[in-house]
Amino acid sequence: MAAPIAIQLEFGGGAELLFDGLKKHHVTLPTQTEPWDVKQLLVWIQRNLLKERPELFVQGDSVRPGILVLINDADWELMGELDYQLQDHDNVVFISTLHGG
Amino acid sequence: MPVLCSCCAEKRAVLKRPKTGHSLCKECFFCAFEEEVNQTIVSAKLFKPGERVGIAASGGKDSTVLAHVMKLLNERYNYGLELMLLSVDEGITGYRDDSLETVKRNEQQYELPLTIVSYEELYGWTMDAIVKQVGLKNNCTFCGVFRRQALDRGAIMLKVDKICTGHNADDVAETVLMNVLRGDIARLRRCTAISTASEGEAVVPRCKPLKYAYEKEIVLYAYFKKLDYFSTECIYSPNAYRGYARTFLKDLESVRSSSIIDIIHSGENLSVREGVKMPVQGTCNRCGYISSQTLCKSCVLLEGLNRGLPKLGIGKHNRLHHKILSRQPLSEKEERKLKSAEF
Ligand SMILES: [Zn+2]
Ligand SMILES: [Zn+2]
Ligand SMILES: [Zn+2]
Predict the structure, then answer these.
(1) Residue B223 to residue A12, Cβ atoms within 8 A
(2) Within this chain, do residues B238 and B166 fall inside the same structural domain, yes or no?
(3) Which Gene Ontology BP terms does the record give (chain B) (predicted)?
């Protein structure tokens, strides 16, 4: 059993508009049998935080192309993307590049 | 397990560059990004020492990064340019007034003088008023046409030699795709050009120093540098057509990250068979702006607004232009056509 973990989520570049305009969210992911990875985090976000138009945030089981993900201030492409295992106190940032230049 | 920077091999890498696949630390990324913009500017000879250059500033990520990098490179490499910010106020409550606040902060942060020209002073119409008359379907046509000319008019007021805009690699690739889909061969040929020459007195030359910079890198540059930018969608529904092209492009990019540069290169290398008819650029009879018709698009749209015939200028009503130009009355049938309310 994995203990619950507390992480910080941030949405920016316009992605915050899908979350009531709120940029920072402190959340606790509940206990579950396997460790939490980013793929499961996306499902959790969809069920618990996403307020509107999910198609602007997720596509398939990943984020919509054009949304950048940073884990502890590093590009998630360097961290294993969906397979990254979340740790207590991690900071995950989602930035939309799709909003106005 | 942190990945190390492939450039300095010392610090933790913070991003994987879409263009090269290299993993870089923050400092090496800043350095690579700025150097590439400098390379673009130098190799395309975008500026000459002593020039006055207006930076088209919207408060969004692209133009904020552009202003920051232009200021920095101008000092680092002694370009000898006199830089200033030029913004257009379309008159959209709750959207443009907020983004203009960002530009005003940029004015302080970068110590660059700012000039704002508004649709209201140039055309006598704000976008809010235009939308009231034309509705939400074609308002982006008005906004796009008016903005292009507004920047030129502002640039002439400021007596700048050039305008630079924040168009990035993704924007250019998108425009290539859109012009292919529309079959617009004239625009397709022009849209990949890094700079436009002066096309007559009413048009100030423009250039795109960020033409080869990927959107991902622009956004991350702004993020890591903590630049202050504004990112809310225009409240009058964004250009849907561009939206499709953008989504398609992002899907392509997620399969192969070089697709953006590949599309730009195909656009650049396009050659048009001899004998293909191209529209001849002349000038507008009323305002002197470049136009392939007797009246430029902006004058036609404006005439439509002022006469309460908003459909004028949307779609093909070219044969009515001479009537408008000579202030002849329109027939009842023509009026009905241009008024029709399926906006
Ligand atoms: Zn952009
Ligand atoms: Zn480094
Ligand atoms: Zn005109």
Answers:
(1) yes
(2) yes
(3) protein urmylation; tRNA wobble position uridine thiolation
- Residue-number span of the structural domain to which B144 is assigned: 40-269
Both B168 and B298 in a single domain? no
Q: Answer whether B78's CB lies under 8 Å from B100's CB.
A: no
Say whether residue A68 is in contact with chain B using an 8 A CB cutoff.
yes
Query: What's the gap between Cα B288 and its chain centre?
Result: 22
Task: Single out the residue in B240, B269, B298 at which a domain terminates.
Answer: B269
Cα of A7 to nearest chain B Cα, Å: 19
In this structure, what CATH number is given to the domain that contains residue B195?
3.40.50.620
Cα torsion for A41, A46, A48, A49, to the nearest 10°?
A: 100
Cα–Cα dist B216/B168, whole Å: 10
**Quick check: is B25 in a domain?**
no
B45-95, pLDDT tens digit by residue? 999 999 999 999 988 999 999 999 999 999 999 999 999 999 999 888 877
Report CA(A97)–ligand 1 centroid distance (Å): 7
Q: How far is A4 from chain B (nearest CA, A)?
A: 22
Q: Give the number of domains in chain A.
A: 1
Phi and psi at B85, nearest 5°, equal -95, 140
Q: What pLDDT sits at residue B343?
A: 44
Instruction: Write the DSSP symbol of residue B19.
Output: T
**Which of B5, B219, B246 would you mutate first to test chain A, the one with the most A CBs within 10 A?**
B219
Low-confidence residues of chain B: pLDDT under 70: 1, 198-202, 232-241, 315-322, 324-325, 339-343
Clarify whether residues B287 and B177 are in a common domain. no
Residues 6+ apart with CB under 8 A from B246: A66, A98, B170, B174
Is the minimum CB–CB distance between A3 and chain B shorter than 8 Å?
no
Q: Residue A42: inside a domain, yes or no?
A: yes
**Distance, in angstroms, between B44 CA and closest chain A CA?**
23
What CATH number did the domain enclosing A43 receive? 3.10.20.30
**Amino acid of residue B262:** D
Range of the domain at A58: 5-96
Put simply, the answer to whether A75 touches B61 (Cβ < 8 Å) is no
- Could you give phi then psi for residue A30, rounded to 5 degrees? -70, 165
Q: Model confidence over A83-98: pLDDT tens digits?
A: 999 999 999 999 988 7
